[in-house]
Amino acid sequence: MPLLSISVFLPLLGGVLLMALPNKSARIAHGVSIATTGLTFVVTLAIWARGTLPGGFAQVEEIAWIPAIGAAFRVGVDGLSLPLILLTSLLFFLSAIYAARITDRPAVFVALMLMLETASIGTFAALDALLFYVFFEVSLVGMYFMIVGWGYEERQRAGLMFFIYTLLGSLPLLLAIIGLYLATGSFDMRLWIEAPPLTGLAAMLALIAMLFTFAVKIPSFPVHTWLPAAHVQAPTVGSVILAGVMLKFGTYGLVRFALQMTPDAFAQAGRVVLAFGVFSALYGAFVALAQSDLKKMIAYTSVNHMGYVVIGVAVAALTLDPDLRAVALNGATLQMVSHGVVTGALFFLVGMLQSRAHEREMTAFGGLLGQVPWLGWAFVLSAFASLGLPGLAHFPAEFQIFLATLNAQPWAIVAIIAIVVTAGLYLRAIAAVFLGERNEKWAAMPDLDRGEMLAIVPLLVLIILIGVAPSWLLNMIDVTMRALQL
Amino acid sequence: MARDLSFLFPELLLAFTVVLMLVAEMLRAPRLALTFGLIGLGLSTALTLPLLEADTSVFGGTYRVDLLSGWAKLILLPGTALALLMTRAEIAGKDREGSVYTLLCLVTLGALMLAGGGDMMLLVLGVVLTGLGSFAMVAWPRDDAATEAAMKYLVFGAVTGSVMIYGLTFWFGGAGSTLFSELGALQSKPLIALAGLVAVLIGLGYKAALVPFQFWAPDAYDGAPVSVAAFLSVITKVAAIFAFAQVLRDLPVATGWPVVVALIAAVTMSFGYLAALVQSNVVRLLAYSSVAQAGYFMLGIVALGTSPLALPSVIVFGAAYVAMNLGAFAVIMIAGRNLDDFKGFGRARPLIGVAMVVFLLSLTGIPPLFGFVGKVLLFGAAIEAGYLWLAVIGILNSVLALAVYLRIVVPMYQARDGEAVRAEVALPLLVVLGATALVTALMGLFAGVFPG
User: What is the per-residue pLDDT across B143-194, written as a single tens digit (0 to 9) for each?
Assistant: First the structure.
């Protein structure tokens, strides 16, 4: 069975089905949504059970699309894309559960969300560059309408900025793809990875175009400015998907396209990329420290965490030692997954807090831990994970990134200062919101209900599981990264 | 002779249809004229299919039956049928209704002359035939705005047309023949080649509304009925672009024409979108947007003779452009000409709203819509021809395009002040919307049917 194609198109099918139904009440819409995303999650688990191959792609499926120019529907997985596909289907499933409380035009919301899931899984699974670009852009459209339709106060402006900014960001990638296509006569990404077609100046230009695209998506300093606006205004589910899944398009592309298709140029430009990564990590942490809006703060910590991924990839490009390279890339890939899980949880929790209080300013709260213990402890656990506490999800990832960095480019280890800053800002947030004097205004605030528990608990379990025993995930990643030929 | 005529069945049938339509109009039977038109266009399209593989020319090389002219028929004839339906929805029951239908088909005949012309005389014939009908259609409403617009259009057309004929005489003198296929003789005569090139750029640039010959377009579109504006913005424009392709692919690249065309393309794209950014009248906004789209077409023209992607890119984008632009104009006919009319439109009419979003995103070039496939091919052709800078400008303009089209999308989903009035939408218009939306949304996925 073509499981991969099924997992890509099942959500879309669910959305189309919903649109065709005569009765589109909230109950039915959310029922379709949970059933579809749940089924998709099961399919991706089956893909996981089939496994990957060392060196190359597994479970490849191919159908002709535009044969005249060598574009086809090609999908497949390896140790880089499979963890991200699993993360995507899980986060969408949990989002569907949490979104069941949306009553404003529920059917349209669900259809958009399912379209986004198709685009997201498709982006990670695509082995055809044109197909990749199609999914990459469709996700933009879906997210734009989600922000504009269901966001908060400033949603129009934030949505517009997000759309125009990221479209400007992604078009250079199209140029790079066309360049690679003209050099080979095919859009097959496997060909481009096996034998990078461009050399010299052409490769460097293509790399610069790709780096620009992925830097906007990651987002890396100085093209990160769309992120806080989009995150703060997006609805909770939008924030979770944006941070948990869509930011990974950038880091995934950084490895899949920039590193694998123009490896020599990347090695030449590695120090510059590394410097941007280090600066992003530090900058994200310090700016997050300056925020008093909880959602904005978490948005900026994403800049920080994704900065570590950039550091890991850049170190991998710079080092000649294959073991060290595998360590750096393992760390970077695991960091993508950890960030998806942890930040997904944090955005869920802030969303839950906001839906109760209609407030995101830290100073407006206080002493909530006694009032809403479940919400409080879940936030504390996720925050500790986010600041890199050993035993929680980010630690094994960041440890490997820093290990490789220290060995290959010792100066870049200054980025570790950011961890201290993140620790400070999370402790401050916890103190302001959940500890201290109790604010009587929130005396009637209810704790998490069953739907919210269902959405958040799996993420908390994963945070601990990845932190304590990451090997089930790392082994899969490691097999691919060790076989990587650069 | 018989052989030559057998290749011209679609054109002959269309000419015959126009005569029948004229008779029907004289009998004051506009619905009959419309029926004749639709049947004639449908049959001509069907007759084109067996000729698609042909690559020949008739009447001593003056008229070409090749890939380009074949696809021109497949694109322009159904496009005209859709425009006929739109016109019907807009002017049904009005005076001289049938004349507009007849003129639409007559202009399309001229458009086919342009797209298939292999000779300077035929080029002139095509320009004049498309021009005369268009002037009359713009003036049709008989109010001040329409008269002024038609006057502008006519004067502009007369001047550029004469300049073109004058300039073509240089090519005739230099090459010793009016056939485009003899233009290779100009290889060593750069000045003569340049003189003729400038003339063609003026004459066809005016038809395609390239900067700096675009002044008439916003006024003419705004003065004419919306459906006629839609027709002018797609059929005559695409025909002019195809005529560019027929002429320039025979002109030696060594004469340096691609650089000139590339510069015009860059200016046209940028000016079109910048001007569209400040419009509050949606017809004018789309008029400037179609100026910019003409600039994108030129990316493919630039690559003629150097990239095998050039012709397919122009054909595919031509098909996409006809579908999405006609669709967008059809939505304007329902919503209204002002940007304010679009406030809350998407909430009041969800399905038509989604269709409009599809048209506008396709015009921007968002995948997997049809416009995207065309633009990828255009960019690919330009890059292969060595015009990376032009592709970069095209890409930057795509961002500007998004800003332009979002100006329509954003208010569509805002809350409307007061109750929305839901007028009944005429059936022909629904047919047009359905057909264009399906083509725009799905043809990108089936782009394999196009030549490549």
Answer: 999 999 999 999 999 999 999 999 999 999 999 899 999 998 888 888 899 9
With CA atoms as reference, the chain A residue closest to B364 would be A167
Total number of domains constituting chain B: 2
| B79 CA: distance to closest CA in chain A (Å) | 24
How many beta-carbon contacts under 8 Å exist across A and B? 79
Cis peptide upstream of residue B258 (ω within 30 degrees of 0): no
The DSSP secondary structure of B335-365, one letter per residue, reads H-SBGGGGTTHHHHSHHHHHHHHHHHHHHHT
Q: Is A128 on the interface with B (CB under 8 A)?
A: no
Measured CA to CA in angstroms, residue A2 lies from A85, A447, B161, B311 at distances of 15, 43, 59, 36
Domain count for chain A:
1
The closest CB to that of B447, out of A66, A133, A181, belongs to A66
Tell whether B212 and B274 lie within a shared domain: no
Quote the domain boundaries for residue B209: 1-252
- In this structure, the answer to whether residues B172 and B63 fall within a common structural domain is yes
Out of B350, B364, B448, whose CB is closest to A67? Answer: B448
**Buried residues in B89-99 as b, exposed as e (16+ CB within 10 A):** bbbeeeeebbb
Contact B381, B313 (CB under 8 A): yes
Output the six-digit token pair for A313: 């990839």
For residue A178, give how far its alpha carbon lies from the nearest alpha carbon of chain B (Å).
Answer: 6
Non-local (6+) Cβ contacts of A437 within 8 A are A366, A367
Residue A31 touches partner B, C-beta closer than 8 Å: no
CB atoms within 10 A of CB B434: 13
DSSP state of A127: -
Cβ within 8 Å, pair A181-B380: yes
CA distance to A151, A327, B76, B321, per residue, from A116 (Å): 16, 32, 36, 27
Distance from CA of B226 to the nearest CA of A (A): 29
Q: What is the CA radius of gyration of chain A?
A: 21
Q: Which of residues 172-191 of A touch B (CB under 8 A)?
A: 172, 174-175, 178-179, 181-182
| A180 domain-assigned | no
User: What's the domain range around A319?
Assistant: 262-486
8 Å CB contact of A134 and B367: yes
CB contact under 8 A, A163 and B402: yes
Residues B223 and B137 in one domain: yes
| Mean pLDDT, chain A cut into blocks of 10 residues (486 residues total) | 91 92 86 94 93 85 85 91 94 93 88 94 94 92 90 86 88 92 91 89 94 92 87 91 93 94 92 94 93 91 94 92 91 95 94 89 85 91 93 93 92 90 93 85 85 92 93 90 80
B384 touches chain A (CB under 8 A): yes
- Among the candidates B229, B252, B275, a domain finishes at B252
Phi–psi pair at A196, nearest 5 degrees: -50, 120
Phi first, then psi: what are they for A65, rounded to 5°?
A: -125, -70
| Identity of the residue in B398, B403, B448 whose CB atom sits nearest the CB atom of A68 | B448
B343 and B450 share one domain: yes
